[in-house]
Specification:
258 residues, eight-stranded mixed sheet, two-stranded antiparallel ribbon, 14 strands, 23% helix
Amino acid sequence: MTTTRSRVAILAGGRSARFAPDGGLPKALARVGDRTLLDHVIDRYVGAGHRDVVIALGHHRDALVASLAPATVMPAGGSIDVVRPDGVLLRLVDTGPDVGTGARIGLVCDHLDEVFHLAWCDGLLDVDPVALEDAHAAAGALVTMVAAHPPTRYGRIWLDGDRVVDVAEKPLLDDVWASAGMFVVDRRAIAHAEGVDASWEEDVLPRLAKDGDLTVFRHDGFWATIDTPEDLDRVRAAVGDTTPWRVPGRSPGSGGDS
């Protein structure tokens, strides 16, 4: 018997301004290997048994609809359902182009459970959604955020006086933690998203932290986030034909625990 998992929300409504400054292909549809970034994020949850995914659209709406639901017309402000060949339901929701990330999440809440998973469309990481949901249930906070060590943009050197004793090219900052764009959310947290410009990162999370309602799931494994074409090139070069963001034992489409 397959375990029923909570619904998943994926934000794919950004401008992709740093990735496609000329208004070209949105980064959600950029390919790593034989699949798009959005496909890889969806597959992370499908492999853990999730069967219902809500995708919040905004900018580049038509390109994303054409990719996920060819020959389908989405009404402005509406939603459409797409059933993948593996039976996974994708609900595409038009949340409008000029909406903050916090407000965008609020606009899809009616399609979600009381506790749901949330992810950005541009992050590849080998976090097990089941372990994350279990950690959230144990923590008792409104939001659990995956935290990972970010890489520095620059090479790093270590000195002894004026002598260089070690050099690393863009190493991970082991003493720094950053949001990896993957969460479990109690929908009561959305009360902090006030107004159409409300930002998840700048408004909601700081308020939750102040109230003691934000906790972290520390992740020391693989993490890559795609903001620019250079980021995409680095990930492609680093991984080749491998998929280091796959969670061991949870292949996409496996249906999760049985």
